[in-house]
Amino acid sequence: MSNSATVMMIVEGTFATLYMTLVSTLMAYVIGLPAGVALVVTGREGLRPNKTVSRILDVLVNVMRSIPFLILLILVIPLTRAIVGESYGPIVPLTLAAAPFIARLVESSLLEVDKGVIEAAQSMGAGIPTIVIKVMLLEARSSLLSGLAIALGTILGYSAMAGAVGGGGLGDIAIRYGYNRYQLDIMIVTVILLVALVQ
Question: Are 78 and 12 in contact (CB under 8 A)?
């Protein structure tokens, strides 16, 4: 493989990794943010306690978080094929792996909000949607942004693992060339790029 072809392959792999990470993070937040809010709102000390809903959500999140990512990649092949038309697309498994993780990050952030602020909003007649959006999420924004940074780093790591099943990106390049073909230089470059992207 010529040097220019190698450089182009690595550049394309970097953009593929960024695309996978950003799209999966966005999709995971679409699922995980409401789930995290629901865990807090329906919890024992939440705005609207509901033991059944809280327990079901808690079990679902725990089960999904317990499945190792490589196994999840294989488990969701039929679902991935149904959604994107290919069995090896990384977006669906990345989203499903990250959503429960994000739900826990959101739950943790919202539980840090001062109960006095919430009680003050309730005493002024604010409804649950108003309290969640204008009080809880606003008060927890710093923690939520820290959670976003953690989620991006984790999903980037997952995207590299997706290369094990032909998911594309830097992980795929590292496995195909760095590991299978013993090209240590390509392996080192991909690792450096992955570290740089996380930073």
Answer: no
CA distances from 7 to 2, 10, 74, 180, 194 (A): 9, 5, 31, 19, 15
Residue, of 70 and 137, whose pLDDT is higher: 137
Cα 35 to Cα 41, 43, 156, 168, distances in angstroms: 10, 12, 22, 29
Kindly report the pTM of this predicted structure. 0.86
Residue 24, SS3? helix
- Using DSSP, state whether 50 is helix, strand or coil: coil
In the prediction, which pLDDT does 145 show? 94
Q: What is the mean pLDDT of residues 127-152?
A: 91
CA 36, CA 109: separation in Å to the nearest integer? 9
User: Among all chains, which residue has been given the structure tokens 């959604």?
Assistant: 83
Torsion 176-86-198-11 (CA) sign: positive
Look at residues 163, 123, 119 and name the one whose alpha carbon lies nearest to residue 139. 119
Largest CA distance in the chain: 70
Would you list the DSSP string of 122-176? HHTT--HHHIIIIIIHHHTHHHHHHHHHHHHHHHHHHHHHHGGGT--HHHHHIII
